Amino acid sequence: MSDLELIFNMLGEASTTEITRNKDAEGFPKLKEAAHEGGEVAGNARKELEKKSGRKIVTKQNYMDKSENEILIEPNE
Q1: Verdict on whether the full-model pTM lies above 0.85
Q2: Are the C-beta atoms of residues 19 and 38 closer than 8 Å to each other?
Q3: Residues near 42 by Cβ (< 8 Å), separated by ≥ 6?
Q4: In whole angstroms, what is the distance from residue 25 CA to residue 21 CA?
Q5: What is the pLDDT of residues 3-58, one digit of tens each?
Q6: Longest C-alpha distance within the chain, in Å?
Q7: 38 with 15: CB under 8 angstroms?
Q8: Most CB atoms within 10 A, among 12, 33, 40, 59?
Q9: Where are the domains of the chain?
Q10: Cα separation of 32 and 60, whole Å?
Q11: Given its phi and psi angles, is residue 24 left (phi above 0), alpha (psi -120 to 50 degrees) or beta?
């Protein structure tokens, strides 16, 4: 995950939180709607940046390289 992917992910989460609080959403259907709206905010921002920059934001890049992943997985002893 690139820095920009992480930023847009955080924007979606923050937008969802703000929408949930402002609408005082409770229960699964209302929370699902708020999550969809928060995702739309981040998605629209991503698409706008892609349009203006002329390149895609989403990559196949993994945020952690393989050596870091291997360190996190400890063998059973």
Answers
A1: no
A2: yes
A3: 8, 9, 11, 12, 15
A4: 7
A5: 899 999 999 999 999 999 999 999 999 999 999 999 999 999 999 999 999 999 98
A6: 53
A7: yes
A8: 12
A9: 3-72
A10: 27
A11: left
What is the chain's length?
77
From residue 9, alpha-carbon distances to 18, 74, 75 in Å are 14, 29, 32
CB 67 within 8 A of CB 38: no
Here the tokens at position 17 are 């939180």
Two tokens, residue 69: 């992943």
| Nearest alpha-carbon partner for 41 in 22, 3, 20, 13 | 13
Q: Are 38 and 10 in contact (CB under 8 A)?
A: no
* Displacement of CA 31 from its chain's centroid (Å): 17
Give the tokens for residue 7: 């930023």
